[in-house]
Each structure stands twice: as structure tokens, then as C-alpha cells.
Amino acid sequence: MEFINLAGLTEDQKMIRASTLDLLNKALPFENIREMDEKREFPHAAYDALAEAGYMGLFYPEEYGGMGASHNDLAAFVETLGYYYTGVAQGFMTTVIYGGMHIVNSGSEEMKKEILPQIISGKTKISLAMSEPGTGSDVAGIKTTAIRDGDDYVINGQKVWITCAHVADKLVVVTKNDPKAARHKGMSVILVDAKAPGVTIRPLKMLGRRTTHANEVTFDNVRVPVKNLIGEEGGAWKSMMKCLNVERLVLSAISTGHCYRITDYAADYAKDRIQFDQPISKFQVIQHKLVDMLMAAETSRQATYRVADLLDAGENAVRETSFAKIISSDANFKCADMGLQVMGGAGYSAEYMMEMYFRDSRVGPIGGGSNEIQRNIIAKLMDL
Ligand SMILES: Cc1cc2nc3c(=O)[nH]c(=O)nc-3n(C[C@H](O)[C@H](O)[C@H](O)COP(=O)(O)OP(=O)(O)OC[C@H]3O[C@@H](n4cnc5c(N)ncnc54)[C@H](O)[C@@H]3O)c2cc1C
Predict the structure, then answer these.
(1) Which domains does the chain show, CATH number per domain?
(2) Atom of ligand 1 nearest to the CA of 98
């Protein structure tokens, strides 16, 4: 069953949704996803198929080979990826949004002309390396240094939980180039070749998101030319702030798609599963759980498209973006938890998809600025 209501999407968005699902079904048959998760393999075929169809450039400016799509179009596309398989959505988001949007928003003209077409063609994958062992929520406290030496920066330090770094060609690294500078100051974003001497990438075992991994990345005297600076020296905070709204829009859209997938999957199971001589979907308590899941999906969807609308209208919708991030990531885990309960022992078993959905959805309230940090942002905007 498919519960999502496509009314309200434009004809183009409906077409993007249908063709994306078709393309993904061919490149990564749905029944192969669980095995890929078990093997912890990046979904290369699906990623390459999306690139070949031009979708990596959907949101990028036309002058660099993109399609110049709106935030609404982006939300509709990413919701579809999240619906099919969140691993593909994470792969897209990490390169195109987390890494790539730093270049779009703050990169030099030369860097944009060189790197953006490579992202669009699928040739270059990028990870964003911001979090460190001692610094997660408190990004301004990072310790990785990039010290100027002639025409180079020399980078030393360690990053953790870096999604997709094990398959990345480039890393967008947030560094401190003036260790004595005050918090939020003396920080710079630098594009680093993932294969550069001194860069070590180690995949880490996590509860979920096994195909896009989180990785530890170590920088040991890594030399990077000054031209790889993204934005101004000392301008990292500005560069990061410019990217936050779209990052959180995309996170919300992925969670929304995932909510719908989980609800469809649990409802299909409930209609087939017979207990006491009838499908369990006939029990009112199961029906109510499925209704609550669908309402969580719909609420997440409304919050997501509200942000897309505001961003398309040119609003700096920080408050609504934080609302959406909290609502959608909480809804995602709630749907997975309830879906697992609807399926009983089958929900808890790796023979079915639900346990993967449960594991994959748990990180939403932690990553991308935890939901506690989002509430701090909202509280500040409320002048509390
Ligand atoms: C699967 C996964 C993928 C990730 N991918 C990336 C990536 O690609 N790139 C990257 O740079 N990072 C990535 N991260 C890191 C992620 O951004 C951080 O985990 C997140 O910001 C939280 O930081 P932390 O884990 O250090 O937790 P901490 O900051 O130590 O927080 C621990 C707890 O304390 C709470 N807390 C902290 N400060 C406050 C406060 N001021 N007020 C209230 N509560 C607070 C937090 O909300 C949390 O509940 C990823 C993480 C995971 C788990």
C-alpha cells in the first residue's frame, strides 16, 4: 500500500518522484537493500544511476550545469529517496548538500567551475568533516588546526562520525586556523583530497545507517594549497550558517519519506498477518497505531514543505527549519518504534526490513544538530 497523498505536488515533481522510484528499483532492487545493509556496502549503483539521470545537479545553479530547482522540488525529490531507501538519501545529502553546498555558497569561482560539474556527474563524492571526539554539539570548540605555511595550510587533528568518508574523494573540513582566536573566530573551511598523504579514514561500527557508515578521519600534517580555502580565512562560521537551512530541510525530507515507507510496510504486514482467524489489521488497536504513524508522517511532511515554501520565498526560516528537524526526526523514530510493535517478533527480526528502519531512524534526533540543540536555537529566537 502507498499512503502518501501526492496532491499538491506539481506535475514536474510527480514526474521526478515516479522516475526516481523507477530508476532506483532498477539500480537497487528493493529486495537487495537488506543484504546491502548486512554487508555494509555503499549503494554505488543507485548513486551512479541518480548521477547519470542528472539528479545530483537538481538543486545546483544552472550556470554550473545544475537544474536550478526550488527548495520545494528538492524536498519532493529527497522525500522520494528517503521513501525508497534512506542510505541512498544519505549518500546524496552528504555529497550534494553537506559538502557541496559549502562550495556553492562560499567557494571561489574557480572551485565551483572545477568541482560542481564533478559532483553532478557523480565522479566526485564529498563528506563534511566537522565533528570531533571532544566537540559535537559545541562546533565552535573544534581543535583540528590548519596553520598557514607559505602557499599551503598544514592540517592536524581528528574528526569523528563522518558519514560516507570511506567512499569520499574530497572532504570539506572545518578547521581552526588561529588556535588562539575566540570561539566562532579563526575558523576556516577547507577542501581536502581524501587520498592526500596524512589523511587516514577508518569506518566505525554504528547501530544503523550501515551502508553510509560513520568514519573516523585523522589528519597528520596534511598539506593543502591555500586555494582550497572555501570562503574567507576565518569565515567558517558564516559559511556554515549559510548551509544550515537547506541541510535541515533535506534531513526533514528524508525523515518524512522514511515515515511513509515504514507506515506502508507495517500496514502491508498487518493486512497479511492472521491471528485469531483474522488479519491483525482488523484489530482496532493495530488500526490506531497505523493511523498514528500516518499522522506522524503527514505532520512531518507539512513541517518540511512549510520550510521549503519559506525558503523559496527568500525567508531565513531558522525557527521553522528547527521545528521541522525536530518534528520529522522524532516522527521517524516514533513510526519505526510503532511499526516494529505492529509486526511483533517479525519486526524485531533481521528477516524483515523493520529492524533496519528502527536502527536507521534512531540517529535522526542526534545528528544534524541534536534536537536539544534545535530547541536551544528556538528558545534563543523566542528571546527566552
Ligand atoms: C550516524 C552519524 C552520522 C554523522 N555524520 C556526521 C558527518 O557527516 N559530519 C559531521 O561533522 N558530523 C557527523 N555526525 C556527528 C553529529 O553531528 C553529532 O553526533 C551531533 O552533533 C551531536 O554531537 P555529539 O555526538 O558529540 O554529542 P554531544 O554534543 O556530546 O551531546 C550529547 C548529548 O548532550 C546534549 N547536549 C549537548 N549540548 C547541549 C546543550 N547546550 N543543551 C542541551 N543539550 C545538550 C545533546 O543534545 C546530546 O543529547 C554524525 C553522527 C552520527 C551518529
Answers:
(1) 11-125 (1.10.540.10), 127-234 (2.40.110.10), 237-381 (1.20.140.10)
(2) 8
Output the nine-digit C-alpha cell for 59.
538543486
What is the 3-state secondary structure of 35-63?
HHHHHCCCCHHHHHHHHHCCHHHCCCCHH
Coarse DSSP helix, strand, coil percentages of the chain, rounded to the nearest 5 percent: 55, 15, 30
**DSSP state letters, 302-359:** HHHHHHHHHHHTT---HHHHHHHHHHHHHHHHHHHHHHHHHHTHHHHSTTSSHHHHHH
**Among 247, 298, 320, 355, the one annotated catalytic:** 247
User: Active site includes 31?
Assistant: no
Q: Sign of dihedral through CA atoms 138, 140, 143, 146? A: positive
Tens digits of per-residue pLDDT, 203-253?
999 999 999 999 999 999 999 999 999 999 999 999 999 999 999 999 999
**Ligand 1 pocket mutation, candidates 128, 131, 209, 384, criterion most atoms within 8 A of CB:** 131
DSSP 94: I
* Spatial CB neighbours of 284, under 8 Å, sequence gap ≥ 6: none
State pLDDT tens for residues 305-319.
Answer: 999 999 999 999 999
Instruction: Ligand 1 pocket test: pick from 244, 370, 372, 380 the residue with the most ligand atoms within 8 Å of its Cβ.
Output: 370
CB contact at 8 A, 84 and 225: no
Q: Give 93's DSSP letter.
A: I
